Each structure stands twice: as C-alpha cells, then as structure tokens.
Design the sequence.
C-alpha cells in the first residue's frame, strides 16, 4: 500500500494563529507547531510558511489524507480520506 500525500494551501480565513517552538539542533518533529491551537502531528508531513511584509501569510500543509486527524482536517479545511480495508 503506497502513501499519497497532498499539498494544500490553507485559506486565509482558516488561519488565526501559528505557534512554533523548535530547537535548531533537533529534528522538526521534536518541536511544536500549532495552527489555531491544534498540534500538527499525525498525518502531517510538512508545513511551509511564506511570510512577506506586503502580503497575507501563506501556509501550505503537506499531509496524508488517510492519516490526518479528523478535527485537524475540519479546522484547517483539509480533505480527509476515509480509511479503507483491503
């Protein structure tokens, strides 16, 4: 079974708060990244931030739609795939 990852830009109205606490000497998964108070964990592969003074912030989330938490998917407007058994 292969994993399919989706990259999706969050809609500006879905973004209210970003919290990042990382140690530059450790891997990213060892730190904390929260969007709208939700910890980014299961199913999230990467988060890209584009911060330009003259534009709204852009957040691009790469995730596995069958592994992402339902609450996180709904809060951020990400597509959640139902797990299927084969």
Sequence:
């Amino acid at each position: 079974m292969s994993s399919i990852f989706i990259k999706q830009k969050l809609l500006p109205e879905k973004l209210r708060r970003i919290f990042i606490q990382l140690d530059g000497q450790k891997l990213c998964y060892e730190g904390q990244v929260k969007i709208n108070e939700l910890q980014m964990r299961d199913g999230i592969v990467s988060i890209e931030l584009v911060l330009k003074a003259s534009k709204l912030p852009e957040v691009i989330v790469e995730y596995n739609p069958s592994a992402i938490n339902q609450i996180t998917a709904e809060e951020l407007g990400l597509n959640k795939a139902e797990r299927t058994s084969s």
